[in-house]
Structures are given as C-alpha cells and as structure tokens.
C-alpha cells in the first residue's frame, strides 16, 4: 500500500496519501514500526491485516518521482503491479469523498503517472481521496 505525496510537505492536501498510511499504521498497531529503507528511498512498515501481509510505503521523494520508490519496493518484496494499492489525492473529488479506481489512466495525477511509468503498467488499484479544488 503506497501513500503518494510530497515527503517533506506533511499536512498539505497533496500529501493526503501519506496521511492515510499514517492512520492505517496506527490502526494496525505498527505506527512505531516505520523505518527508512534506503533501497527504495521510502519509509516502510510491515503489517498483517485479515491474514494478509502488508508493506506500507511512503516514498521519500517528491510526488512526480514517487514511482521510483514504488517500483523499487515492488522488486524488493516481489510484488506485481496488481498487488500494489496506491492511495492519493484527487482534485476532481469533493473534500473527503473517496473512490476506488481499478487501474487505467493517471487522470493527470503526476504521482500516479510516475508509478505507471516506473512499473510499466497501469493495473494498480487506487484509493482516490478527494481534496477538492482551491
């Protein structure tokens, strides 16, 4: 599960994917387990939920380079694009509204486009978090 965003800009609308991962880590009782993984330039926490092993990932790069971290982690943990869930902001959704997208285009989102380019696939399911337009 990759939370897309701008790593050094916590609390901004475009980093909502990372905020969701922080909340998920707290709910799964692994919030103290975040560690820096230099191999993929990301913060990583491992968790288990409903019998599934999860890799929670917050890239330590700007949004338009998030895909490099996601692709490196996919290689390290032997994951295919269909195993990777992207969590990201969506300007076209009202604040707080969420939607699931099962692959397809990036719809203009630079972080998603970076993941599609780095993984050579658009099959990643996505949780789109509405942030609205300013």
Automatic annotation (TrEMBL):
Keywords: Hydrolase, RNA-binding, tRNA-binding. GO terms for molecular function: peptidyl-tRNA hydrolase activity; tRNA binding. The keyword Hydrolase applies. PANTHER family: PEPTIDYL-TRNA HYDROLASE. This is PTH hydrolase.
